[in-house]
Design brief:
Number of strands: 10
Number of domains: 2
Helix content: under 10%
Strand order of the largest sheet: 1-2-3-4
Order of helices and strands: EEEEHEEEEEE
Distance between the termini: 47 Å
Structural class: mainly beta
Largest sheet: 4 strands, antiparallel
Amino acid sequence: MAEKRNSCMAFCVKNGATSHKVELFASHQWQGAPAGRYRLRVNRRWMDGPDGAHLYLAPEQLGDTLLRLAGLLPERDDAAPALRRGTRVSVPNGRSIGPVPLRDVTHVMTEAPLRGFDGLWYVGVQIMGRGVVMVPAGDVQVK
């Protein structure tokens, strides 16, 4: 099925024999998307977040992403956090009481953390009523 959304920019990123067709789409074309961000389609495939959800990049994140595609920006060398399956953790659940964010105590469900396109480490946790959710490892507190 043909894409009905309009790209605001398309270009080719080359590094030696490797080339990538990159298209930028403004986020206002998706319902409920954050304003002022962009979705990328690389080689006719959407660049999604680690959990498969739509990934919307801020303008300052686009440059790093494109340089990584071209092989000009090295991958981050920070080690994966030691969050293995079964580890008891506390994660934000998206609710709050006034200015205080609420957290759920749960367990890690993924075998090991995953690196997302944004360069952050993510870990899958079980959240009541939502199933397994990918959460940035920086938001996780070990209990």
